Amino acid sequence: MVSNIPKDAERFNKIVRGNIRKDLKDLIAKDDLIGRRGKDKVVIPVPHINLPRFKYGNNEDDGGVGQGEGDIGDKVRPADQGEEGEGQKAGEEAGEHMLELTVEELALILGEELKLPRIEPRGKRTIYQQFDHYSGLRRKGPRSLLRLKRTFCEALKRQIASGEYNPEDPSISIEKDDMRYRSWKTKDIPESSAVVMYLMDVSGSMSDRHKSIARKIAFWSDVWLRSHYKGLETRYIIHDSVAAEVDEETFYKTTTSGGTKIVSGYIEAQKIIKRSYDPSDWNIYLFQFSDGDNWGNNEDEFTVLKGGLMDALNLLCYAQIDIPWFYSSRYGTKSEEVMGSYLGELEKFINESKYKDKLLTSRLQDEEDILPAIKTFLGTGK
Amino acid sequence: MYWHLPPNMAKMKDEIEEAAKGCGLDFYPTGFYVVDLDTMNEVCANTGFPTRYSHWRFGMEYERTRKETGYGFSRLYELVINNDPAVAYLLHYNSITQQRMVMAHVFAHVDFFKNNACFRHTDRSMVYTMENHRRLIEKYIDEIGFEEVEQFIDNCLSIEYLIEDTPYIQKQKQEEKKKEKNCKCGSGCKGCKQEKGKSSSEKLPFGLPEYMRDFVDIEALVSGRRSEPEEEKAGLEDRFPKNPERDVLKFLIDNTDGMSQWKKDILSIIREESYYFLPQRQTKIMNEGWATFWHDYMMTEMGLAEPNGLIDYAKTMAGVIGGGGMNPYKLGFLLYHDIKERWDKGRYGKEYEEEKDALKKMDWDTKEGNGFKKMFAVREAYNDVQFIQDFMTDEFIQKMKFFTSKLDHDDSWYKISSRDPQEVRNWFIGQLINGGQPVIEVFDGNFENSKELLLRHVYYGQELDNAYRNRTLARIYSVWGRPVHIATIADGQPIIASYDQGQVQITKW
To answer: Within a domain: residue B121?
Structure first.
């Protein structure tokens, strides 16, 4: 009997992954995945896997038959309430299958779907270099690596144990089993590394939705990049009118408000670069998220960019999130699209300078645009 | 990995087989295999047929069982398939005592397969039939292409349960129709029907005596379906088929325009396999209860459990019959016990039921001793619905302290709503009718006079799941090739849901 099952299971998994790909857009837009680590398991509902059939709907009112003592009206069990109940209901709908995946696997599916290039490390950008170093001992090896001292010790040990050793007349005879040779391990040593800095505007004009979109781009880019570059470093900066470097958690959770001075973020980035990352050794990428609303006439920003930051950067990825704001005034509610002006001016400035190839921009209006933005930033393979 | 029985277990098998025969069980020769957990999962995913055709849903089933058994949420002790000779798989992690129990269990299952009325028309060489099905499907995959065949199988599997739930009655009906044609006065008038009824040599189902023929609506009795009111039938003469067709798959095979041979073959395969598995859905409680009763009887009363295995046995048994009201092992087990007691002590019939004195009733014992005889008769003639209807007595329900519960919306608690035996019974039957599946039939194959398909959901108080309904309609559409409608009830309103070119429309009527 040759079982078909392995084949069937494989086919099934392929279908599941195909389905995930179709639903990627919604998946990416999910809030609860943000902040997970690469090896973390996530459980993803995969809809439309079960075969649809005519079946009875869920009759919530019916508690079924139970067994035991009790009068009419006695409580049997609580109904599932709130979130749990909803979750269950959603799970029931349209034949969902729950699938366990790691975030990393998900990022790979994302890469496949967006047809992101698998970036081949090249030249100076090789992040790892292989390096052999001696770390242990083994019983076999070339003569040149023989460790005499250790070999003698082993021989001595053996002789003492077997009672051959005579302290009056110490003579050590070495046998083949006593021989110890150095052994080595191949280690990956980062030769030239990459750092990605995420710079987010958290000023008052950035609503929670703005920030959530920004974080999603940051998170998924990060997961994907990490799954490709071992040893990638990430730094997080938030700014309103002043900037601060924060840790990952703060970056993904923080809410602040205030004015906006993009220049403060640039200066902070520059500081970090000066402190830790020598541009001649590091590939430095800056992802910037903003609503394009900036105080002043952007002169300061461009001065900083011109004054060394652009030289240090390999790439500046700028995502501008333009969600229409709704104003309610005494003349009634009107919706007005506030186009942040920074995007246009930045493009104009960069295009006129020598850094033309170092800028990627994307403008987002809602969650739908997240995937295209990620594709823009990661799709070039730079 | 799977192995034939090792010598010690082969000896055990002979011993248990003798004991089972001694109990009066009548089974096909049964072959046992010992398998490891992974193989067991594979076999289960394939519903016991390693020779079954390849399809991703078996893979899905496998992933699911693997997770469940792997984490220890559930345990599979055995799997047995209805075939002659029967094939049973035992999990090799079972302890020796458990293996004994499981073997006894298996023999009782095979006895049930062989003798129960619902299984009478099942294919007893299904192992080979499955193999042939697989070969044919593989041939078509080679000829037509994998994607296309898989797509079509997906579509068909969505409707695999839409078959007649009483195939033996169906056969009878066809024969009657033939006779009707011979009827002189035309369309089977009452007089002729009665005559024909009397002269019919066809045996009544469930061993009903011949004189009952004129008094019972056999069809309704067997299927649990009420005969339609006359006025509903009138005025719809121009429908096709004339009477609603329960066997939707057969209707599609016969009447779909331009369906190519390979599609017909695959749909037939799915229909055939569906009919094969149908009785197992119809007799879950009876079958498991029967097997549990007998393995318990053999292990304890007949002393098949070794003395040092009794604790192990008791623990395992507690796991098998643990849990709530709907555990088929437990419910069936208890019901058979009840039947045995009642017929042993003569606690049935008019005299017993009309006895008012509760004390007398409690001590009622006519020393009749017909318990086993009745049990065997029941296992031969009943399915789950009738089993509950007839043998889940008011006294049984009271003794078991069954109740129904309903959601109280005020504080979101399920509360005991009734201890009325009839309501409890109705709840069970509602779960069991048509194997727990909605009853769907072809109402008109030429709807709107343009070969659109009108299905009808026969409503028993439970509505269809809307999302599933719409997606299933889409699947049927891709088989039928023309718009598909279903008359059903949604949110208390009678509606027709229509599917045409990717869109579902709901019309009230």
So the answer is: no
Burial code (b: 16+ CB inside 10 Å, e: under 16) for B108-140 equals bbbbbbbbbbbbeebbbebbebbbebbebbeeb
Chain B within 8 Å of A126 (Cβ-Cβ)?
A: no
Whether the pLDDT of residue B94 is over 50: the answer is: yes
Interface-testing mutation among B52, B58, B127, with chain A (most A C-beta atoms within 10 A): B58
CA distance, residue A13 to nearest chain B CA (Å): 8
Contact A76 B415 (CB under 8 A): yes
CB contact under 8 A, B472 and A5: no
How much is the mean pLDDT over chain B? 84
Peptide bond into A372 cis (omega under 30): no
Fold of the domain spanning A194-378: Rossmann fold (3.40.50)
Do B12 and B48 lie in one domain? The reply is: yes
Please report the number of interchain residue pairs, chain A to chain B, with beta-carbon separation below 8 angstroms: 176
pLDDT in tens, A15-28: 887 777 777 777 77
Name the pLDDT band for A379 (thresholds 50, 70, 90): confident
Write down which residue in B389, B404, B433 finishes a domain: B433
Q: Is residue A330 predicted with pLDDT exceeding 50?
A: no
Pair B35, B91: CB distance under 8 Å: yes
Note whether A8 contacts B: Cβ–Cβ < 8 A.
yes
Looking at the structure, do residues B85 and B39 belong to the same domain, yes or no?
yes
Closest chain A residue to the Cα of B471, Cα to Cα? A52
CB proximity A332 to B under 8 Å: no
In this predicted structure, the answer to whether residue A110 has a pLDDT above a threshold of 50 is yes
Answer whether A252's CB lies under 8 Å from A216's CB: no
Q: Which residues of A touch B428 (CB under 8 A)?
A: 65
Contact of A31 with A212, CB cutoff 8 Å:
yes
Query: What's the pLDDT band for B139 if we cut at 50, 70, 90?
Result: very high
**Mean pLDDT, rounded, for B184-202:** 45
- Residue A307, chain B, CB below 8 Å: the answer is no
Dump pLDDT digits (tens) for B436-490: 889 999 998 888 888 899 999 988 888 888 888 998 999 999 999 999 999 998 8
Instruction: Report yes or no: A98 at the B interface, CB cutoff 8 Å.
Output: no
Q: Identify the residue among B44, B47, B403, B426 best suited for mutation to test binding to A, counting A beta carbons within 10 A and taking the highest.
A: B403
**Among A225, A1, A228, A286, which residue's Cα sits nearest to residue B130?**
A1
Q: A82 CB near a chain B CB, below 8 Å?
A: no
Q: Where are the domains of chain A?
A: 5-53+81-114, 128-188, 194-378
Structural domains in chain B (count): 5
What is the mean pLDDT of the segment spanning A262-267?
Answer: 87
The stretch B105-114 carries a mean pLDDT of: 96
Q: Are residues B366 and B333 in the same domain?
A: yes
* Helix, coil or strand: residue A190: strand
Contacts of A13 in chain B (CB under 8 A): 59, 63
CA distance B417 to chain A (A): 6
Amino acid at B285: I
Q: Which residues contact B182 (CB under 8 A, 6 or more apart)?
A: none
| Tens digits of residue pLDDT in B205-233 | 666 666 666 666 666 666 655 544 444 44
Tell if the CB–CB gap between A51 and B406 is shorter than 8 Å: no
Query: Among B317, B303, B318, which Cα is nearest to B98's?
Result: B317
CA dist., res. A306 & res. A310, Å (int): 6
d(CA A282, CA A124): 9
